[in-house]
Amino acid sequence: MNNEISFMDVINQFDPAVWWGALAALITFIIELVLLVKGVIFASGDKKLAKAKKEGRMLRATMVHCRYRNRKPDNKTINRMYVAQYEYTLNGKTKTKQVVSTGVRPPHTITLYYENHGKKVFTDSIRGGGSLQLIIYIIPFVMAYFVMTALGFTGKGV
Fold first, then answer.
1. Which residues lie across from 101 on neighbouring strands?
2. How far apart are CA 112 and CA 133, in angstroms?
3. Hey, which bits of 30-154 come out as E strands?
4. Which of 36, 48, 88, 112 is 20 to 30 Å from 58 at the Cα level?
């Protein structure tokens, strides 16, 4: 008896809707990566920073307080998380900005940037969508689910 299973036997064990769903997920992921690289999605932070620099909306902030904690589980000094409180003056009002950094103690003075109205300041370390970038990984699975469901896949055994 021949107990070998061919590649085609493995592929034929699954409903074709599964393969179409996987293909849809792959295509969706590739499209998202292209849009991400081209700066179409999650580029608002970079655009906001470039606009503030171009329009000269910059100011200097001075550190007034800095604390750190050793990150778990190592409890080593090289794995520290620093939280620095900076003070700056904008439109005649003195305010503070908290900046978090890892590994290296933050500098004594930093450059902050602000938008038109000056209500919100930000550093040059802002990048993209942050936790929203998880959507890049979730959307392909949702797309695969919709395609498989539309093709009649129920997920029940044969």
1. 82
2. 24
3. 58-70, 80-90, 93-102, 109-114, 121-122
4. 36
- Helix, strand, coil shares of the chain as percentages rounded to 5? 40, 25, 35
Cα atoms in the 13 Å half-sphere on the side-chain side of 76: 6
Give the least confident one: 4-18, 101-115, 126-140.
126-140
State the DSSP string of 133-147.
GGHHHHHHHHHHHHH
Cα angle 76, 80, 81 (rounded to 5 degrees) comes to 155
Q: Which two tokens stand for residue 84?
A: 């620095």
The answer to whether the CB of 61 falls within 8 A of the CB of 97 is yes
| Residues 64-111: tens digit of each pLDDT | 999 887 766 665 556 778 899 999 998 888 999 998 888 788 899 999
